[in-house]
Fold this sequence. Notes:
The chain has helices spanning about 5-10, 15-25, 35-45, 50-65, 80-85, 90-105, 110-115, 120-125, 135-145, 155-165, 175-180, 190-200. By secondary structure, it is mostly helical.
Amino acid sequence: MPDPALRHLAKSDPVMRRLIRLHRPYVFEPDARVSPFQSLVRAVAHQQLNGTAANTILKRFVALFPGRRFPRPEDLDAVDDARIRAAGFSRAKVASLRDLAAKTREGIVPTPKKIAKLSDEEIVERLTEVRGVGRWTVEMLLIFKLGRPDVLPADDFGVRSGFRNAYKLKDLPAKKALLAHGERWRPYRTAASWYLWRAADKE
């Protein structure tokens, strides 16, 4: 077991050791090329929608900005709310996109270069200032876009469901209990989350 994350998880938690044996290998390929602005636009589009519907809306949205692979924050000023809504965004999501663009221009939402220098909690604190962006959304960005190694999204249904299955609980764990148990997984809680997602898939 050459991976230090797997060694640590297996040593610190016998249930994790069993999950590692069942679900090897730990596969994780973050995509840091996407800017925080683009990641959050995509996250807003996916809120309360399935992936197919969200991707259709995103294609229509990008089509509002000819010549761009993806719009910049300042590009949104040239398109009124009605056209963005026609692409499929609700009024609340349009308001989120406007706030996201404004906070990106202000520097609250950092550039890719600057975000790399911030701690996980600093990123959570800054990005949750954006309307409609909660902690879970930022944690998904930390994991799948930035590849941060020690993220445990305790509000995530899949993580909680996987924990219930793996630890043979009757009910979903409370957030506080999950976070307390997860202390033994530090500094590799992202890997632990990956295995809990696998355990959830086995329902």
